[in-house]
Amino acid sequence: MDTWQMIRAERQSLVDALAGLPVPAWEQPSLCAGWTVRDVVAHVIATASMTPPRFFAKMIGSGFRFDAMVAKEIAAVISGRSDAELVDMLSTRVDARTAPPGPALSWLGETIVHGEDVFRALGGYREHPAPHLIAVADFYRGSDLLIGAKSRIAGVTLTASDAQWRYGSGPEVTGPLVALVMAMTGRTVALDDLAGDGVAVLRERTATHPR
């Protein structure tokens, strides 16, 4: 299975899960500071609808302020749409291979991590195929792109308790691979799902440089 096939599977899984959310859940805070569940879903839709030329045009229009551009895109997607319409809109992007500039693995990570920004915030992780999580963990371990995962995990050993995946050296951090991925990307709550002496190291770094 290539990366875009994995992205397709994760998008479809996310659509199916979102379709079952009760109405009040959409207004709940996500794991992204200042974003509701609805905001996160809108961001995923906007990202899946973006192309490199549009991305650069939007950046220029936002004065090269990435956060301002993202906020505009979220507002544009949400405007006048119901929760059900957002789910339908995301469903139309399941097969899309459009994205901002960047490696395809970053968009697989985007889909998984932002999906868990919703569902971990609401109580629990969803199931993901181990090869999807391994591919994302392998990408993040070597990347400081935007979220600083490579620097965040330097000097600790990450060991998945539910998959054949291990990386690093130093104090141990052990737990479900999805929680390790979320911790790598700076989600503080994921540290509560992990064990080992290295958790304190990640907690300090995440407090200093949150996502």
Descriptive account of the structure:
It is a single chain. This protein is mainly alpha-helical. The chain folds into two domains: 3-119, Up-down Bundle (Four Helix Bundle (Hemerythrin (Met), subunit A)), CATH 1.20.120.450; 130-208, Nonspecific Lipid-transfer Protein, Chain A, CATH 3.30.1050. The chain is built from ten helices and three strands; from the N terminus they run ααααααααβββαα. The chain has helices spanning 3-19, 37-49, 52-61, 66-78, 83-91, 104-119, 130-141, 149-152, 177-184, 198-208, and strands at 157-160, 166-168, 172-175. A three-stranded mixed β-sheet has the order 2-1-3. β1 (157-160) and β2 form a beta hairpin. α2 packs across α4 (66-78). The longest helix is centred in the first third of the chain and has 17 residues, at 3-19. The protein is globular, with a radius of gyration of 17 Å. The two termini are 30 Å apart. The relative contact order is 0.13. The mean pLDDT is 95.
